[in-house]
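In this section we walk through a basic example: taking a raw amino acid sequence and producing a predicted 3D structure, encoded as discrete structure tokens. The instruction is simple. Fold the sequence below.
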Amino acid sequence: MTPSAEGLTKAARRAANSASKSLPMWVLVDVPPDLRYVFAMNDEPDSLILRMLCRMDAKLDRMVEDLGDLKTRVGNLETEVAHVHVQMTGLSVRIDRIEGRLDRIERRLDLVES
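The resulting token sequence is shown next.
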């Protein structure tokens, strides 16, 4: 049901004319209360596209949040690997010292073949 030109006020006609020059928008038509309704220019395509864009935006927001979480987790893993590396270096030094002590013990006890 489309309103007739007589049912539109000057303000509603100006809004409809300006809407046709800009992006599609919702316009409230000034008609008697029993016939009042809202119509849209390019109703279905904009609605469908808008719904799809909103879904894509929501998915993108989730992906950005997940990416932030992954960056945090990778940073934590890098920190843990660095700690393990430091611990392995410390163990290597201790093993070297123990090896030196064992060599001295073997020499004192004449357990080493010359």
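Looking at the output, two observations stand out. The beta strands are 26-28, 38-40. The helical segments are 10-21, 43-108. In the next section we compare this with other chains.
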